Every structure is written in C-alpha cells, then in structure tokens.
Amino acid sequence: MGMYRDILESEETVLSEIIEKQMKLKKAVNDKNWSCLMECISELDELAEKFNALDEQRAQFSDENAGKVEMNDEEVALLSRVRGKLIKSRAESRAMCEYIHITKEFVQTVLDTAVPNSRARVYSRKGYITNSQPSSVVLNTLF
After folding, report:
1. DSSP class of 18
2. pTM of the prediction?
3. Distance from chain centroid for Cα 98
4. Per-residue pLDDT reduced to its tens digit, 2-47
C-alpha cells in the first residue's frame, strides 16, 4: 500500500499549493495586481494538470487493487485530509467564478445604461438574435 500512500501524500501537497495559489489569486484580484493575477492563473493551471495526473494514478491503482488491500488508519486519515482540501479548493474556485460572473454582469449593465443602443444586432449561428456581451473588460483607473 506504499504506492497508494505516496500518491495520496503527493495529492495533498499539490492541493496545499493550489489552495495557497488561490489565496494569492484572490489577493491579486482585490489589489488589482494584474501581472500577479496572470502569474497565479498560469501556476494554477500547471498545478491542476499535476493534480489530475496524480488523481488518474490513484484511480487506476484503486481499480487494479480493488478488494485486495485494506487501508490502515493513517491512510484513511490522509485520504480524509485530501478530500477536505479538495472541497476547500472547489469552494474557493466557485467563489471566484461567482465573483467574476457578478462583476461581469455589473459592468455589462453599466455599459448598457451609459451607451444604450450603440451596438448592432448580433446573431447566433442558427440565426437567433443574441445579446452581445464583452468577453473581457479592462478599465484604466489611472485617470
């Protein structure tokens, strides 16, 4: 069961790094530090790929050894910590996504109110009229 334990320990380490980067990302957004934000996003992508590879290894090991090996108390505790950190990371991701969604809607409303009917109609591939929305908005706060 040493390999399974090694995988869980690696997953726990990567999840700890992900949570740390998520906190750094949140601070970068609040501080409007865009270079740090881009750096955090890049690092989070790399860590997510690393975690996914480890999780695939763990799942494959579990499938190959299903019913053959039992976990001891220490490994059960380690698995619980990994699951707890995964839940915390998912909650942070959802919170950031919700914040971005609300901010995008707010900016869209402000733009629609400030500059009404300034855009031409936009049609979908199927010919339906769609509401055009900016994919990203950058505000210059230096003035």
Report:
1. H
2. 0.73
3. 11
4. 788 899 999 999 999 999 999 999 999 889 898 998 999 999 999 9
**If DSSP codes are grouped into helix, strand and coil, which group holds residue 69?**
coil
Split at pLDDT 50, 70, 90, the class of 143 is very low
Please state, in angstroms and rounded to a whole number, the distance separating the CA atoms of residues 1 and 109. 56
Q: Give 122's strand partners.
A: 130
Contact 83, 9 (CB under 8 A): no
Q: Are 81 and 12 a contacting pair, CB within 8 Å? A: yes
Is 16 in contact with 28 (CB distance < 8 Å)? no
Q: What tokens does 13 get? A: 């380490």
Any idea which of 6-20, 76-90, 120-134 has the lowest mean pLDDT?
120-134
Nearest to 76 by CA among 13, 5, 126, 127: 5
Contact 47, 18 (CB under 8 A): yes
Contact (Cβ atoms closer than 8 angstroms) between residue 26 and residue 66? no
Q: Please state, in angstroms and as integers, the Cα–Cα distance from residue 119 to each residue in 72, 74, 86, 125, 132, following that order.
A: 64, 61, 43, 18, 8
